[in-house]
Amino acid sequence: MTGGFSLRRAARQAWLAGMGLLLTLASLPVRAQEATPGAPPPVPPALPPEAAPAVVPTVAPILPVDLSPWGMFQSADIVVKVVMIGLATASVLTWTVWLAKTVELASARRQARRALAALDEVQSLAEATMRVGSARATVPALVRAASSEVKLSGDLLAEGVKERVVSRLERIEAAAGRSMTRGTGILATIGSTAPFIGLFGTVWGIMNSFIGISKAQTTNLAVVAPGIAEALLATALGLVAAIPAVVIYNVFARSISGYRMLLADASAAILRLVSRDLDRGTLPLSKAAE
């Protein structure tokens, strides 16, 4: 009896020890799964919202949608806009002066050549007055001035007639030259100042670009390029206004010089007619100029 009781007691103690071991294993973290191939990794515990790291969003630089000349003008600084408008106005003014002066010079040169050809065909100042004296142009004005001086000098000695006629003709030539050069001074001003005005707009635009770099704290070309493009557009407009103005001014200077030479030839022809009338001496000067 004693032996059977001892066996049952030993078996009960072994069972209790086994149950205690199972409970101990169940309470421990499962580490066998970490070494098991194909098992999912353990999920880390979630952090509270106040402990989560702050994520700084990346702000992309805002670029102009339209990089055409008109788009760059619209997005430019107010000072650069004023420079561009001024240069565009100067360019329009240059071509307006070119058109007006081209028509005026062509008409004046054509009339001067026609009147000069008529002066070469006549034999006296009176005949020249009848041929070309009634037209409204510079050469007919020269003929009328010579005829008027001859009439006023009819009762005077003939020695001073030519000097007085020359004085009248020179004044008319000078007035015609000044009238023909009117407007070309604008071309000279535009040609000499437009590049510097465009350069001022360029410097201002590049300065704004550097200010934008300092504010954005980046040297990314996407941030700098629009301002530089606007600045270079001002330079381009300055050259567009200046180059044609200089070329047109030089062309007009040569054309006006040729027109003055035509007037000088007409004055010389008129003086020859006056000299013939003086050398003939068959009629009083007042009658020869009628």
Descriptive account of the structure:
There is one protein chain. The chain has 290 residues and is mainly α. It has helices at 2-27, 32-35, 69-74, 78-121, 125-132, 138-152, 161-181, 184-216, 221-280, 285-288. Helix 6 (138-152) packs antiparallel against helix 7 (161-181) and helix 7 runs antiparallel to helix 9. Residues 30-37, 55-61 and 285-290 have low confidence and may be disordered.
Short synopsis of the structure:
With 290 residues, the chain is mainly alpha-helical.
How are the SSEs ordered, and which strands pair?
Blueprint: H1 2-27, H2 32-35, H3 69-74, H4 78-121, H5 125-132, H6 138-152, H7 161-181, H8 184-216, H9 221-280, H10 285-288
Helix pairs in contact: 4-8, 4-9, 5-6, 6-7, 6-9, 7-9, 8-9
- The average pLDDT value, as a whole number, equals 76
Q: Per the principal axes of the C-alpha atoms, what is the gross shape? A: rod-shaped
Give the strand tally. Answer: 0
Calculate the terminal CA-CA distance, rounded to whole Å: 182 Å
Low-confidence stretches: 30-37, 55-61, 285-290
The major beta sheet can be summarized as: none
% residues in beta strands: under 5%
Radius of gyration: 50 Å
Based on secondary structure, the structural category is mainly alpha
Number of helices: 10
Order of helices and strands: HHHHHHHHHH
| Helix share bin | over 70%
